[in-house]
Amino acid sequence: MAVTQAIPMTRHPYADGSYKKMLIDGQWIDAASGKRFETHNPATGELLATVAEGDGEDINRAVAAARRAFEGPWSKVKPYERQGLLLKLADLVEKNFEELSQLDTVDMGAPISRTRGNRLRVLGMLRYYAGQATALHGETIENSLPGDIFSYTLKEPVGVVGAIIPWNGPLAATVWKIGPAIATGCTVVLKPAEEAPLTSLRLAELCMEAGVPPGVVNVVPGYGETAGAALASHPDVDKVAFTGSHITGQSIIRASAGNLKRVSLELGGKSPDIVFADADLDAAVPGAAMAVFANSGQICSAGTRLFVEQKVYDEFVSRVAEFGKKLQVGNGLDPNTQIGPLVSQQQMDRVSDYLDIGQKEGARAVAGGGRLTEGALAKGYFVQPTVFANVQDNMRIAQEEIFGPVISAISFEDTDELVKRANATTFGLGSGVWTTNVSKAHQVAKALRAGSVWVNCYQTMDPAVPFGGYKMSGYGRESGKQHVEEYLNVKAVWIKTA
Ligand code: NAI
Ligand code: MG
Description:
Largest sheet: 7 strands, mixed
Low-confidence stretches: none
Number of strands: 22
Distance between the termini: 79 Å
Bound molecules: 1,4-dihydronicotinamide adenine dinucleotide, magnesium ion
Helix content: 25-40%
CATH superfamily of the largest domain: Aldehyde Dehydrogenase, Chain A, domain 1
Shape: globular
Oligomer: single chain
Number of domains: 2
């Protein structure tokens, strides 16, 4: 395995060790409590910034600002103007894209090749939602009532949205919540993850520069149990859009009960990635490996249960293991780095525990299996890309979300049986099928209970194509027209005309 030892480090202009305030009502302010927390680079341990630490009081202020904006001038802003704001924001994000990519990289560790590679998707999302802003419409609906009664629907913004995001892709996650809110005329209070709050704050600056009115986008950094919980339970929040773990998702639902707020949840997964013996193995090896190793496995839809047809199991798994061993692991700012650190000590401990659990359960690590601590890596949260062979369906490493660079390779023989086994999980987010047989691809794609099925590819995403979960991977869709609907209410209007 190639390891990046040291990289020339220039200070990021935003993550320069300074203090960052929160954005409420167009003003950059301190937390009501005056508290601050620190955010560090997970590759080096270096302090990047101290950040205003919001809690319930700040959430109250932000929600009040979002409510005033929603009921005030923002409600008069025309679709065309909201579109203009999103296009302006897209241009600003494009202009500052290198800085934003580096900010994601230093704050959460992802390789710069990956954060730069998000360019098309991030800009595409902003411009897609800009397009949606002028495409909102209800319907006229013919009814069967006696007499003359005209019926139609209006689509109206749902109101104040509480957005809670994780750390595994801060720029894209922030855009994914703010974009549809601006497009539909909602207002937002966004709580970034405590592990990586900086890109959301920088994006909020760009929102202000783009001319987004005060109170429409508010960003309150802070911890989940305080700021996040206050947002999820706030009686004046109309909807919560959450991305994160299923455990937190469950507490979001409970917290939402007070005012029965709308909830959309994009949670975790244990996605099956299925390789048939007739697949183009030269494509499937890197495809299946990166379906897990990308972003060090910190992707909700990672294809972590690798089902391989018995006939090619040994060959395929050893090729994936070789691929994993050759990956360049190191500081994300090095353009040659393919795998960065995990985001935090907590994530590293969690993943390390699963590495032990896998060994104890009788799986065999054919690549990786431990931490990486050589030289400069000792200061960061690095884990070896790991491939476990001989994994059985009921092992914990085959059932629980690890959120690290860990593949659990399982063999199968019979296709019908395979589909049952692939679906035997509490989750249903992503899934993959590698085959050259078109009929088989269609059959399996139909049978899998998951929100996305990737055939002969993995993890492709597009602003126009809906993404979301079945089962405990959550509900609601992001991207696509369905996403915009999540931010809209439907009102039926009846008019007696004669
Ligand atoms: P988490 O679900 O605790 O955190 C996600 C967001 O929710 C953060 O902004 C956090 O501050 C907030 N939060 C936490 N507790 C909250 C509460 N009670 N009320 C409101 N908001 C709350 O996830 P965490 O701790 O970062 O990671 C733990 C595990 O969760 C990971 O190992 C992984 O398995 C899974 N996960 C899945 C993600 C996904 O994309 N589906 C993203 C992050 C984590
Ligand atoms: Mg947490």
